[in-house]
Amino acid sequence: MDKYFITGIGTGIGKTLVSAILTEKLKADYWKPIQSGDLDTSDSITIGNLIGNTQTVIHPESYRLTKPLSPHLSASLDGVDIDLDKIQIPLTDNNLIIEGAGGLMVPLNENELIVDLIKKLEVEVILVSQNYLGSINHTLLSVNLLKQYQIPIKGIIFNGDENTETERYIQQYSKVKTLGHVPQLSHLDKDQVTIAGEYISL
């Protein structure tokens, strides 16, 4: 079974949307190891509202932090220490979509970042990018960091408005496969998530 860690080139890039699309497309399980803030409208709850299949199991978070802040700060304010050794991949016979928090350099504690968690979990990464001024820089920096850590990259998914030149340049320079482009959705519901899966090729 395949396990993919969904990370982005920054915050608000569309990781949860892409996670929902892939979870539905693969009828995979879903797991968000660290939820920082918005516990009543968490990403796990959002995923549950956006998928329609009956096979997906949404696994509980390893850490549920109450403040919508960087995980290291939210954990500190909650009196919690995030210990990567306590974050274990759920046991499942299904494919698994793992959603990160923010980008690769988001701190989890005083010494470790999201990228360290990915390395520990030993899973492939799907990088979510979005076209805006500066996104080439942010995407290539993210790719280079993953390569520096020797983390395998399944590919890049672009989300939102299309920019063919930006996407072409990122692909030719990084040599990372483009898995697809999710267009700007008119609204967000189960039907749209299912349709969007047709734009992604794994």
Outline the structure in words.
The structure is a single chain. The protein has helices at 15-26, 43-50, 71-77, 114-121, 135-148, 164-174, 190-196, and strands at residues 3-8, 29-31, 34-36, 58-59, 63-65, 96-103, 124-130, 153-159, 178-182. It has one domain: P-loop containing nucleotide triphosphate hydrolases (Rossmann fold). α5 packs parallel to α6 (164-174). The mean pLDDT is 96. The protein is α/β, with parallel strands linked by helices. A seven-stranded parallel sheet has the order 4-2-6-1-7-8-9, with helices on both faces. Strands 3-5 form a two-stranded parallel sheet. It contains seven helices and nine strands. Helix content is 33%, strand content 22%.
Keywords:
single chain, 202 residues, alpha/beta, Rossmann fold, two-stranded parallel sheet
What can be said about this structure in brief?
This protein has seven helices and nine strands. The protein is an alpha/beta fold and 202 residues long.
Main-sheet strand order equals: 4-2-6-1-7-8-9
CATH C-level category: Alpha Beta
- Under the CATH scheme, the architecture is 3-Layer(aba) Sandwich
**Rg, Å, rounded:** 16 Å
Number of helices: 7
Provide the domain count: 1
**Secondary structural class:** alpha/beta
Strand content: 15-25%
* Quantity of strands, as a count: 9
